[in-house]
Amino acid sequence: MIGDLITWCVFGLLAGALARFLTPGRDPMGCIWTMGLGIAGSLLMGFLFSVLFGSGLEDEGIQPAGFLGAVIGGILVLLILRSFSRKV
């Protein structure tokens, strides 16, 4: 249980950091928010994948495709956050 939580946190931190690196612009957020960004991106892409392709949420561990999905989801979440935080 604790090992799974640590794995999710490290996975989220790496995916969120890569999403922030690949998305140009300045985003003032620390390690915790970057970790949350990666985890939120992973959840978003997992949800979208299950809706689009009808697959269930099986626990098969960390896979390269899941990491890529988490990074893409992190980029989407970051762009959504930026669109809401822009002042008119």
UniProtKB/TrEMBL annotation:
UniProt key word DNA repair: no
Keywords: Cell membrane, Membrane, Transmembrane, Transmembrane helix
Annotated source species: Pirellulimonas nuda
Membrane topology: Multi-pass membrane protein
Family recorded in the similarity comment: Belongs to the UPF0410 family.
Annotated protein name in UniProt: Transglycosylase associated protein
Places the protein is found: Cell membrane
Major location (coarse): membrane
Keyword Membrane tagged: yes
One Gene Ontology CC term in the entry: plasma membrane
Segments passing through the bilayer: 6-23, 30-53, 65-84
